[in-house]
C-alpha cells in the first residue's frame, strides 16, 4: 500500500462545524477555541464565514472573531467569502486566505447560492481577482461532487469542468466536497482516478462528510491515489442539512487517530487536540460525536 508520509489536515470546525449549530456560541468562546486550535500543530484553520449575517447568524461575528484571535505565524487563517461585499469585510479583518464556493450540481447551486452555475462564475471571479490584488491566497470549494440531494449522482466530468473554471480564475487550491456524505471507497477511487488526469492532486483537498460512516475509508482510498490534504472538523462538528440527525464533517480527531496509528505524520499534538475538543464541547449543549470524544467522555482513556 503506497501512502503519503505526511498528510495535511485542514481544520474547518470554526466555520463548517459551527454554521449549522442552532445554539449560539459566544464570540469570546470562539476566539478562545481558535487560539487553542492554534496550539495543536495545525497549519490551517478556517475560522469563519463572511456571508450575510441574516443567512448564518451563528457566524454574524465574523469580523470580531477574525480580529480577536491570537495569530501564529505558521498558520493560515482562512474564511469563506460569497461575494464582493463579503470580500470587503474579510479584507478588513485581514484573513490570510479567501475561500469561494459553488456546487457541481445545478440544482444545489441554485438552492445554496440562488444562482445558476454560469451566473455564479462572474461573482466568484470578482472575489478571486480582488483577493489576488491584495496578495491573498484563494481556495475554491466545489460542493456535491459525489452526489446531490436533488439530482442524485453527479458526473465527474461536470465536477472537472467547474474545477477547471475555478483554476482558470486563479484559485490556488481546490477542495472537493462530499456534501451529503454519500460517497463510498470504490466511487472515490473511480472519481479521483479520472479527476487527476485533468487536474493536479497536489492542488486538491478532499472534504468528506461522515454522514454514512464512510469518510475514513474514503480518505484511505484517496491517499492510495496520491492525495494528501483533507478537510475535517474537530469532534465531528457540523450536521448534514439533508439528513436530519446524521453526523456531518469527518472528525479531525478520528482522522488524526487513523493517520497517527499508520505512522503518517501530521505535526499535530494529540493531547492539545483533545483539549481543544473538550473546550468547545463544554460550550455546547451536547457531546461531540467523534469516536475519540465518545471514548474520552466515557472515561476510557
Task: Give a description of the structure.
It comes from Salinibacillus xinjiangensis. The chain is an alpha/beta fold. The chain has a single domain (8-297), classed as Aldolase class I (TIM Barrel). 41% of the residues lie in helices and 15% in strands. The chain is built from twelve helices and eight strands. The strands form two sheets. A six-stranded parallel β-sheet has the order 2-3-4-5-6-7. The two termini are 30 Å apart.
Give a quick precis of the structure.
This protein is α/β, with parallel strands linked by helices and about 300 residues long. The protein has 12 helices and 8 strands. It has a single domain (about 10-295), classed as Aldolase class I (TIM Barrel, Alpha-Beta Barrel), CATH 3.20.20.70.
**CATH fold label:** TIM Barrel
How is the largest sheet built, in terms of strand order? 2-3-4-5-6-7
Radius of gyration: 18 Å
- Examine the secondary-structure arrangement and name the CATH architecture: Alpha-Beta Barrel
Q: Mean pLDDT, as a whole number?
A: 95
As a percent range, the share of helical residues equals 40-55%
Task: Spell out the CATH superfamily.
Answer: Aldolase class I
The CATH class is Alpha Beta
Strand content: 5-15%
Number of strands: 8
- Please identify the oligomeric state: single chain
Ends distance: 30 Å
Count structural domains.
1
Name the poorly predicted regions: none
Amino acid at each position: 500500500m503506497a501512502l503519503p508520509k505526511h498528510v495535511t489536515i485542514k481544520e474547518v470546525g470554526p466555520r463548517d462545524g459551527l454554521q449549522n449549530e442552532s445554539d449560539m456560541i459566544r464570540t469570546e468562546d470562539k476566539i478562545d477555541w481558535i487560539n487553542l486550535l492554534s496550539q495543536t500543530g495545525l497549519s490551517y484553520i478556517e475560522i469563519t464565514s463572511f456571508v450575510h449575517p441574516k443567512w448564518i447568524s451563528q457566524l454574524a461575528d465574523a469580523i470580531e472573531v477574525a480580529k480577536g484571535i491570537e495569530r501564529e505565524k505558521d498558520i493560515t487563517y482562512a474564511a469563506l467569502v460569497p461575494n464582493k461585499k463579503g470580500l470587503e469585510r474579510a479584507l478588513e479583518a485581514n484573513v490570510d486566505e479567501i475561500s469561494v464556493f459553488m456546487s457541481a450540481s445545478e440544482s444545489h447551486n441554485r438552492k445554496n447560492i440562488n444562482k445558476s452555475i454560469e451566473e455564479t462564475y462572474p461573482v466568484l471571479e470578482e472575489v478571486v481577482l480582488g483577493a489576488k490584488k491584495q496578495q491573498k491566497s484563494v481556495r475554491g470549494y466545489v460542493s456535491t461532487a459525489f452526489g446531490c440531494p436533488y439530482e442524485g449522482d453527479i458526473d465527474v466530468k461536470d465536477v472537472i469542468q467547474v474545477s477547471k473554471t475555478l483554476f482558470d480564475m486563479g484559485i490556488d487550491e481546490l477542495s472537493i466536497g462530499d456534501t451529503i456524505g454519500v460517497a463510498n471507497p470504490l466511487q472515490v477511487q473511480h472519481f479521483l482516478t479520472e479527476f487527476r488526469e485533468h487536474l493536479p492532486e497536489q492542488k486538491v483537498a478532499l472534504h468528506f462528510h461522515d454522514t454514512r460512516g464512510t469518510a475514513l475509508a474514503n480518505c484511505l482510498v484517496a491517499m492510495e491515489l496520491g492525495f494528501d490534504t483533507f478537510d475535517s472538523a474537530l469532534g465531528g462538528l457540523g450536521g448534514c442539512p439533508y439528513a436530519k440527525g446524521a453526523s456531518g464533517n469527518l472528525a479531525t480527531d478520528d482522522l488524526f487517530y487513523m493517520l497517527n496509528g499508520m505512522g503518517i505524520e501530521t505535526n499535530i499534538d494529540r493531547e492539545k487536540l483533545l483539549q481543544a475538543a473538550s473546550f468547545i464541547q463544554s460550550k455546547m449543549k451536547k457531546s461531540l460525536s467523534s469516536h475519540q470524544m465518545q471514548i474520552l467522555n466515557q472515561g476510557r482513556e
